[in-house]
Write a structure and sequence with these properties.
The protein is an alpha+beta fold and 130 residues long. It has a single domain, classed as Aminopeptidase. Helix content is 26%, strand content 44%.
Amino acid sequence: MPAGQTCGKDGQEPGAVVRKGSAQAWICLIEKNRVAKTAFRIAPAYQGRGLAAEAVKAIVDFCFAHTELRRIWTDANVRNAASWSVLEKRGFAREGMIRQGKMVNTWCDHYIYGLLKTDLEEKQEHGHDD
């Protein structure tokens, strides 16, 4: 997604682009009632370079510091270990699994991950600010 574009069903949610050299990743945030869903995509040629971890950290830090969000959640295909590894590294908790749910344009089993603002604050209080 090019910089400045939006994402989501109605195209009104903000999107961000993280660039590192010639690689880029986009992250999307859809907010409702102080809860937001986020998603990220990395082109195969640029995977494994830390872009997703950087993007997730940036959006979590920004949202919890500058908005009234209390919770951020996302989902990850059970076969996409790289994605759920990024989420777990950034403090998201695996909250459950949806069997044969719809993700983007496919039906698959996927994990639900969540991060509460209080989780992040507690982690930072204990000196674990990755």
